[in-house]
Amino acid sequence: MEESMLIKDIMLVIKKYLWLIILVTVIGGVAGKFLASNGQPPTYQNTALVLLEKQTDKTVLNINQPDDYNRFLTTAQTLVSTPAILKSVKSELGLKDSLSKLGTEVNGTIENGSQIINITVTDANAKRATKIANKTADVFQRDIKNYLGVKSAQVVEPAQAGHETAILHSRTKANVVMGVIIGLVIGLALAFILGSFGRKKATV
Q1: If you ran DSSP here, which 8-state letter would residue 147 be given?
Q2: Which residues contact 54 (CB under 8 A, 6 or more apart)?
Q3: At what angle do helices 2-16 and 172-203 cross, to 10 degrees?
Q4: Is 32 exposed, middle or buried (0-12, 13-18, 19+ CB in 10 A)?
């Protein structure tokens, strides 16, 4: 009996203050959308491709096994984002970034098990991402022979200006949903607080 009375009281409070619950819920959703639109700005990516051919001469140091292409390519892709390559990139482009920061923007990957190294740069500025990607590719093809037994290195596809990929960091839908949920909870809490005050006044 007490449980049914409690449920009835709850439903009466919700019905009485439904307008308040809806209002606060809508405000929460709007606030979530506003916060999402004022979040982290997008970044941009662009990629240059470099084709490597390993030196097969067994007298070359570091490349002395016939089936070590995987190790060769893994080492090459790792070198892309190290000071061995980026020091020249920074100097030739006149960048003010530290080598450690530049290293977080530049990434080397192997293209589907091939001999192609993808040099991908992520930056807040689209033109700068393209410029760094192409300069890194140029320096890489020029200097990689200083570190690995490379027969040839060639930029087969430079990063194209205007073809940068925008990466959005805002979570608009998630923020709106979270705002609605928080607004609903706050609206219900306010409704029960007001309902409680109303009952106290009625008993006085």
Answers
A1: T
A2: 63, 69, 72, 115, 148, 149, 150, 151
A3: 110
A4: buried
Give tens-digit pLDDT for 157-191: 999 998 888 876 566 677 778 878 887 888 788 87
Q: What angle do CA 171, 174, 179 make, to 5 degrees?
A: 115
**Percent of the chain as helix, strand, coil, to the nearest 5:** 55, 20, 25
CA distance 105 to 132: 9
Name the nearest CA neighbour of 79 among 130, 117, 132, 122.
Answer: 117
Per-residue model confidence as pLDDT tens digits over 95-143? 998 999 999 999 999 988 788 999 999 998 999 999 999 999 999 999 9
Secondary structure class of 50 (helix, strand, coil): strand
Tokens representing residue 25 in the block? 């819920």
Q: Which CATH superfamily is domain 43-167 in?
A: EIF_2_alpha (3.30.70.1130)
**Is residue 102 within 8 Å of 115, Cβ to Cβ?**
no
Amino acid occupying residue 189:
A
CA distances from 195 to 33, 116, 122, 186, 201 (A): 30, 69, 54, 14, 10
How many C-beta neighbours within 10 Å does residue 73 have? Answer: 22
Contact 30, 179 (CB under 8 A): yes
